[in-house]
TrEMBL record:
Record organism: Streptomyces mooreae
SUPFAM superfamilies documented for this protein: Metallo-dependent hydrolases
Highest rank taxon of the organism: Bacteria
Stretches with biased composition (Basic and acidic residues): 303-317
Signal peptide coordinates: none
Key words, A-Z: Hydrolase, Metal-binding
PANTHER family: PHOSPHOTRIESTERASE-RELATED, PHOSPHOTRIESTERASE-RELATED PROTEIN
Family: Belongs to the metallo-dependent hydrolases superfamily. Phosphotriesterase family.
Keyword hit for Metal-binding: yes
Region (Disordered): 297-317
Name of the molecule in the record: Phosphotriesterase
Gene3D superfamilies found in the cross-reference section: Metal-dependent hydrolases
PTM annotation (N6-carboxylysine): residues: K128
């Protein structure tokens, strides 16, 4: 498990919000930027107070990840933070940014995973990519090919933004079929947004992890379908594939601004899932499953020149 403060044993991860954002900036969300370190710190404190122990930030390259702030925020809050490399959909970037990366984002991804973000920042612990609505455009295919290459080089897991929860099979065909990524190195995100139980089941049968990361203000429309979707997967024997996240994408969705934010995942959201599914299963979704999904065999990664530079921190309760 590669956190912004160094590698930790997966068992030390604790209660994990498997898909969220402390920092995020996109031309698609003007005026809604998550760019305030003090608000991020307050949100982490609220998450910690609700019993949270780890946050996986799925903000990729070029979207204001706040990489320089993340180690301090992790240290001060006592919450493990995992950062991401990778690329989102083309619409989230200025064309010249993508042009610069045209020749091969794989090198960037590997460097951010093994050396550090921007060379001197914390190392990323996952690769984020994105599909489109029921399909994959040239940018998505190019980015996923680079992600597969970086995955092979480092062992890192690939987390996929599915547009409105769709296109899981197209992503699996490309990543695990054409590009030969092991299915258990793929996390399909936003499946909650498309409560298609047949697609969920097929993705689980393929061996991927399934992230249901819904309960923030921006993506509430299908929250009410979540318990039945998770129950169906668990009954089919796929309880070990499920991850839960908050996916706070706007300042207004933060708990410190009156929204549900990260604590909601562990309060109301968890409570209703406990009622529907039982506490043991929900605890597994929040602890053992993310510990397995985000673990990686970093030993096979290229030699890290900064090895020993990061301070290893004690696992938190
Ligand atoms: Zn997200």
């Amino acid at each position: 498990m590669r956190t912004v403060l160094g590698d930790i044993a997966p068992a030390g991860l604790g209660v994990c919000d498997a898909h969220d954002h402390l920092f995020l900036r996109s031309p698609q969300l003007p005026g809604q930027e998550l760019d305030d370190p003090e608000a991020a710190a307050a949100e982490l404190r609220a998450f910690r107070a609700a019993g949270g122990s780890a946050v996986i930030q799925w903000t990729p390259y070029g979207m204001g990840r706040g990489a320089a702030e993340l180690p301090r925020l992790a240290r001060e809050s006592g919450v493990h933070i995992v950062a991401a490399t990778g690329l989102h959909q083309a619409a989230h970037y200025a064309p010249e940014v993508l042009e610069r990366l045209r020749s091969g984002p794989a090198g960037l991804f590997v460097a951010e995973l093994t050396e550090g973000i921007g060379g001197t920042g914390p190392r990323a612990g996952m690769i984020k990519v994105a599909g489109g609505f029921h399909g994959l455009d040239a940018h998505a295919r190019h980015t996923m090919a680079a992600a597969a290459e970086a995955q092979r080089a480092t062992g890192a897991v690939i987390g996929v933004h599915l547009e409105l929860g769709t296109g899981a099979q197209a992503v699996l065909d490309l990543l695990c079929g054409e590009l030969a990524v092991p299915p258990d190195r793929v996390i399909l995100g936003h499946l909650n947004r498309s409560p298609d139980l047949v697609a969920h089941r097929a993705a689980a049968e393929a061996g991927a992890y399934l992230a249901f990361d819904g309960p923030s203000r921006a993506h509430h429309a299908t929250d009410w379908r979540l318990p039945e979707a998770l129950a169906a997967l668990a009954e089919a024997g796929f309880g070990d594939r499920i991850l839960l996240g908050g996916d706070t994408t706007t300042a207004g969705a933060r708990s410190v601004n009156g929204g549900p934010g990260m604590p909601h995942l562990l309060r109301r959201h968890r409570e209703r899932l406990d009622i529907a599914l039982g506490k043991d299963l929900v605890t597994q979704f929040l602890t053992a499953n993310p510990a397995r999904a985000f673990a990686a065999d970093w030993a096979r990664a290229p030699q890290d020149p900064h090895k020993g530079r990061e301070t290893r921190r004690a696992p938190t309760a």
